[in-house]
Amino acid sequence: MMSNHGTDVTALESHVDVLIIGAGPAGSFLALALGRAGVHVRIVDKKEAKITSGHADGIQPRMIEVFQSYGLAERLLKEAAQLRVNAYYVSKPEGGIMRTILEPTVKGSRYPFEVTLAQSRIEDILRDAMEECGVYVEQPKVPISLSLSEDESELQSRSSEPYPVKIVLQRPSASTRVENGHNVHTNGAANTSTVLGSASGAAQDIVRAKYVVGADGAHSWVRSAVGIDMVGESTKFVWGVVDFVPESDFPDLRISCAIHTEHGNCMIIPREKDLIRVYVHLGDVEVGEDGRINRLQFGPDEILKVAQKCFYPYKLLAPQGFDWWTVYIVGQRVASSFSVKNRIFIVGDACHTHSPKAGQGMNASMNDAHNLAWKLAYVMRHWAPSTLLDTYEFERRKFAQDLIDFDKMFATLYSVTPKPGDKNHERFVEACNTYSAFVLGHGVQYEASTITDITHASIASGLVIGQRIPPGIIVQVANFRPYELHDLLPSDTRFKILILPGDASKPKQKAKLDAVAAEIDHPEGFLKRFTPAGAPDDTMFDIITISHTPCVAANTLVIPPRLQSHWSKSFMDAQTMCEGIGGNLYASYGVSDAGAIIVCRPDGYIGMVAALDDLAEIGKYFANFLHSTPVTA
Amino acid sequence: MMSNHGTDVTALESHVDVLIIGAGPAGSFLALALGRAGVHVRIVDKKEAKITSGHADGIQPRMIEVFQSYGLAERLLKEAAQLRVNAYYVSKPEGGIMRTILEPTVKGSRYPFEVTLAQSRIEDILRDAMEECGVYVEQPKVPISLSLSEDESELQSRSSEPYPVKIVLQRPSASTRVENGHNVHTNGAANTSTVLGSASGAAQDIVRAKYVVGADGAHSWVRSAVGIDMVGESTKFVWGVVDFVPESDFPDLRISCAIHTEHGNCMIIPREKDLIRVYVHLGDVEVGEDGRINRLQFGPDEILKVAQKCFYPYKLLAPQGFDWWTVYIVGQRVASSFSVKNRIFIVGDACHTHSPKAGQGMNASMNDAHNLAWKLAYVMRHWAPSTLLDTYEFERRKFAQDLIDFDKMFATLYSVTPKPGDKNHERFVEACNTYSAFVLGHGVQYEASTITDITHASIASGLVIGQRIPPGIIVQVANFRPYELHDLLPSDTRFKILILPGDASKPKQKAKLDAVAAEIDHPEGFLKRFTPAGAPDDTMFDIITISHTPCVAANTLVIPPRLQSHWSKSFMDAQTMCEGIGGNLYASYGVSDAGAIIVCRPDGYIGMVAALDDLAEIGKYFANFLHSTPVTA
Q1: What angle do CA A480, A481, A487 make, to 5 degrees?
Q2: Most B CBs within 10 Å: which of A83, A479, A547, A566, as the mutation test of the B interface?
Q3: Within 13 A of A82's CA, how many CA atoms are on the CB side?
Q4: How are the residues of chain A apportioned to helix, strand and coil, as percentages rounded to the nearest 5?
Q5: Given a cut of 70, is residue B66 above it in pLDDT?
Q6: For the domain that residue A421 is a member of, what is the CATH number?
Q7: What's a Pfam family in this record (chains A, B) (predicted)?
Q8: Of A288, B287, B305, B457, which sits 20 to 30 A from B322 (CA to CA)?
Q9: Position B140 confidence tier, pLDDT thresholds 50, 70, 90
C-alpha cells in the first residue's frame, strides 16, 4: 500500500474495482456492501464534510430488515424514534381539529413500526461500518471527466481484468481547508490495488475503474455526463419542511399525524430525541419558468405559521429555534436508464425523485445499492456473466416507476385543500391502506427474470416469489433455541438454500431428505457445478434445513450429517417449550408436508421454489445466471 | 492526579473510598457498580493476569436481568450459549441410557433460559464496563496487612470523612514480569483522591480506605485477617469437571442433561462456541485428613473415562483435547459474619462455598456485590446512616444459608449412585422443580427489614415484597411504544416510584392522581424531605406513571404535567395496537382499579407498596433508612 501526498504531483493514476461518486445513503450503502464483499472500492463526495442535520429521515420496516441483515439494525433502533401509530385529523364543524382515526402504522412486518433518524446519523452508521472494511469517504472531491472504453471485447472480457472506465477527480477548489481525517486510508485486507491520496490544490486523480456508480443525487453529475434523461414532471404543490423541538399542548405530537383542514394541510413526524418534523402545504406559490421556486420568500417562521393555523386550537411553538428547514416543489421523475453498458450505473436520487412525505427516498436509494451490490460482486468474482447486471435496472427501474405512480396519487391527495363534503380525506386514508405493503417495503415485488423464477410457485403457496422472504420463528434442533429466520439470512452475498423436508422424523420424508443429502454432492448438482473450484462448499450456497417436527420428536440425528456442516444448521418448525413461539412457518409459507426447497437470493428476495426432490430444477435456475465453470476460486 | 513509578520509593500512602481485594466476578461487579455510582474505587488482584478458561460458567435468568439493568445483557447474550431445555437420562433395563424427561429450563422469568459463558469472558464484560468508569484492576497485588481504627467516633462519623481502614499492599514477589497495561490508571471523572501506582519490587502501597471489601475467594485473605469463620462441612462427594469440544453421537449434547446410571452420574452443560462442560461423580475417592484430595490421582482423561461409561452406548470423545479441568470435593459453608463494623465486608466465595452444579456460584457472588453497592453509595453520599449497611449481611447471609440448604439436598441427590427400584432420580427431578424459582433467581426473597416493608402487601396481591419486581410490558402513552418495565429500572442507584393510578381517564382516578401530583412537592413529602438540598428532583427518586387505560382512550393530557418531567415518563397498561402485547401488568401485579404506588429499590427489589393516596406511608418507609436532612447535595 502506498500513500502519496506530494504537492508537486499534478496527476496520479490508479486502479480500482468500483468508484462511487457521492457518499449519501445510496453511495455509502453501496460502499459498505461492496467493502464487506471484499471488493476494492473507493467513494468520493463533493461536500467538504458530512451533513449534520435535516434531509431524509424515514426508514421503513423492510429497510430495518435490510439493516439487520448487515448487522446494523441494533444501532439504528437504539438511536431512532419509532412510529407505531398513525393519527388522522380533520376540521371540526365548530372550528378546530379532531382526530378521526388512530391505527397501527405497520402490519405484517418483522418490525411493527417505521423509524425516523436524521440522514446524517444514518450516514454515520454506514460510514462506521464501511470504515471497518477499510473504506473511507474521500471528500471534498469531484469528478471532472468520465469516459468509457468503446472496445467491446474489453467491456465483455471475462478472463482478463479490464478497467474500461476512466474518471478524473479533483478537489472542488484550491481551498486549504482541512479534509476529514480518513480520506486516503486503504483496506489492508480486501483491497489489492494501491490507492493514492490526492495531492492538495489542483492536483488531479485519474482513476481507472472496472465500474463507476453515480450516487450523486437528484442533480447527478454522472447521469448528465453519460446523457441519461430524467422522465417526468413537476407538480404545482409546494411544501415546506421544518425540524424543531416543539412546545405544544397537542396530544399526538409523538405519533405520525396527517392533519387535513380548511386552513391547510400538515403532517407531523416525530423524530429522534425530542425533535419533530413538520411538513406543511404552502399552497399558492409562484413557480418560476425553470420549475424552481424562490426560496427566499419562505423561511422556517413562515412554515411554522402555516402549521400553527392547521393546529388550531392547539398551540405549536419552537422555543429553541429550528434544527433544519427547506422548501420544495413535488416533482416526480425516473431516469430513462439506470446503466450504461453495465459499466456505469446510477443509484438513489440520481435515478428517481418524488415527494418526501411517504418517507420513501432514503429507503429506495439504499435498496438500489442493496440490489446492485451482490450482482456487481458476482460479476467481479467471475461467478456470473455481466448479463446478471441487467437485472439491476430491470428490477429497480420498475420499482422506481411504481413508486412514482404511487407518489403521484399520494401527493395529490395530500396537497389538495379539503372542502366540506368532499371525500378527499377518506380517499387519502384508503390509499394509505391500499399501498401499505408497498410503502413499508415488504410488498415490493420483483418481476420474473433470470433470477426470479416463478415456475413452481404453487409449492409454497403462501410465498410470493420476487418478494423478500417473510419473517418467521424457527427453533434450532440441537438446543431448542428460537431464531428469527431473517437472522439466519445475512447479506453475505451467499444464496440461502432452505430445505423444508416436511416432518423428517417420519420415514417417508426422512428417506426423501436422505436422498437430497446423497444427491447434493453430485458433480452435476448445483453445489458442485457453481461453487468455485477448490472453494469450500458454503462459499456461494448456505444450506439450512427446517423440519416440520414437534420439539419432543426432534433431535439432531434426524437430519442427515451431510446437511449439518455444523449442528447449528438444522432447525424445526415447532413451538418452543417455554414461550410457545414458533411453529407456524410451513403454514404461513404454504408448504405442505411434502416439503419444498426455497432459494433465497443474497438480497433476501425469494428467487425460486422447488419440490423437495427436484434438485435438478435448482440447478437449472442457477444456470440461468451463473457461470457453471468458474475461472477462479 | 499523580502517578508515581519511582523505584526508590518503598512505601506510598494514598486514600480511597473503597478498596476491593480480588477481581473475580464479585469484586469486578462491585467495582463496576461503585464506579458507575461515582465512588472512588480501587481493585487489586493477586493473579498475574486474568484467567482465560474454565472456572464458573452459569448465569441464571435473574442475573441476566441484573446484567440488563447495567446495560450489559446485550453483550452477554451475544457471547453466551443458551440453556432452554433440560433432559434427564437413566439406565435402560437392557443396558445403555434413555431420556425420561425433556422440559423447559426456565419458567416465569423475563429471559426464558440460563446462559453459560466462561468466567473469564464474564470478567471481560465487567472489566470493560469498569474501565469506562476509569477503574482498572491492579495486578498482581496482594494485601499484607489490614487494620481498622478502634475510634468509635471515627467509625460512626457522618460529617467528617474518616478513612478508618488501613491496608498495606504489595506485589506478591519481586518478579520482573510485566503487569497488565492499565493497573495504575485513575478515574478522571469520579475520583477525587490521588492514586499512586505501586513501585516495582518490594515497594509497599499503604492505602487508607473508607471501606475495604474482600472479594478474594473461598480462601479469602481478608476473611482470615479479620477472623471471620466459615461454618459448615465437607461432604464425601468428589466430582471432576472437564471442558472440551466433543465428538459424539449423543443427540442431546447442546442441552443441559443430568444422566443417572448404575455406572455413575454425569451432567452435561453446553457452553459458548462448541464447548461442553461435563461433570462426573468420581465416587470413592480417598479424602485426606485436611479435607483435601490428592488431585494428582486424577486427570481429565480419567474424568472423561467416567463420563464415557455413563454415556454408553453413545460415544464421547475429546479429539481436540481439554480446555480446562478440575477435581473438587463438595463442601458447604457460610461465613459466620459478612462484615466487621460495617467498614470491612466480604462478598462472593469468601462468604459461601457450595457445589457448582446448580450453576449458582457466580450468580450468588455478583448478587452480593449488586446488593452491597447501592447501600455503600448511599452511606458514602451521606444519604443514609451506616445502619443501612446492616441490611447487606441480613439479606445476603440469609440467602447464602438458603443456598447451602438447597445445595445439600441437591448435591446429595446428584451424587448418590442409583440402585434399581430406588426413587432417587424421581426425587432429584422433583427437587429441581420445587427449587426452580430460587435457583433461577427470581424466587429469591429478602425478609422484612427497614428497607423491605410488607405492611401493605395486599394492595398488590400479585407481588411478593422483598422479591425482584416481575417483568411486564407497558406502553408509552405519547407514542404507543411498548417497553419492558425492567428496561425502565436501570441500576442507577435511584429508587423507582411506580405510580399506578388505575384508569386515569376516569374522573375519580384522575382526581386522585391530580392529588398525588399536587402533594408530591409538599415540603414534608418524601421527595423534598429526602432529596439532597439543591439537587434535581430526580436525583434519588425516578417517578414513572402507569395508567390502566386502553390505547384509544390514553393521551399525554391524562397524566398531570407534574408527573411528566418528560413525555417519556408516562405509560399505560394496555395492549399495543399492532402486536397485541402488554395490557397485563395490573392483573399480574394484583393491583385493583383503585391503584397503588410501588417503591422499587435501586437493586430492582420491591421495597414497599402503598395505596395511591398514601404518600405519607411512603415518607415513613424512607424515614426508616434515609437521612431526612442531607448534609451534602
Answers
A1: 140
A2: A479
A3: 23
A4: 30, 25, 45
A5: yes
A6: 3.30.9.10
A7: FAD_binding_3
A8: B287
A9: very high
Pairwise CB contact (< 8 Å): B84 & A479: yes
Same domain, A130 and A254: no
**Residue from A356, A470, A560, A602 carrying the catalytic annotation:** A356
User: What's the CATH number where B207 sits?
Assistant: 3.50.50.60
Nearest CA in chain B to A249: B557
User: Is A187 within 8 Å of A135 (Cβ atoms)?
Assistant: yes
Using pLDDT thresholds of 50, 70 and 90, give the confidence band for residue B3: very low
Q: Which residues of A touch B481 (CB under 8 A)?
A: 82, 84, 113
Q: Tell whether A629 is covered by a domain.
A: no
Cell of B593: 382499579
Name B19's bridge partners: B42, B212
Rounded average pLDDT over B93-98: 91
Amino acid at the residue B389? L
What pLDDT does residue A631 have?
45
Using a CB-CB cut-off of 8 Å, the residues of chain A touching B578 are 84, 104-107, 112-113
Split into its structural domains, chain B has a count of 3
Interface of A to B at Cβ within 8 Å reads 74, 81-85, 102-107, 112-113, 249, 251-255, 270, 478-481, 551-552, 555-557, 567, 576-579
**Residues B469 and B436 both lie in one domain:** no
Q: Both A262 and A346 in a single domain? A: no
Nearest to A556 among B82, B113, B251 (CB): B251
Chain B partners of A102 at a C-beta cutoff of 8 Å? Answer: 551-552, 577
A340: containing domain: 16-79+118-228+336-395
* Other Cβ atoms closer than 10 A to A526: 25
Residue of A nearest to B271 (CA): A479
B47 and B95 fall within a common domain: no
| Residue B628 covered by a domain | no
Please name the member of B107, B255, B578 whose beta carbon is closest to the beta carbon of A107: B578
Q: Are B201 and B157 in contact (CB under 8 A)?
A: no
Torsion of Cα atoms, A612 then A395 then A105 then B574, to 10°: 20
pLDDT of amino acid A8: 45
- Which chain B residue lies closest to A553 (C-alpha atoms)? B102
- The CA distance from B51 to B195, in Å, is 25
**Contacts across the A-B interface (CB distance below 8 Å):** 89
Q: Looking at the structure, do residues A49 and A195 belong to the same domain, yes or no?
A: yes
Q: In what order do the strands lie in the sheet with A570-572?
A: A482-484, A473-476, A570-572, A541-547, A495-500, A596-600, A606-610
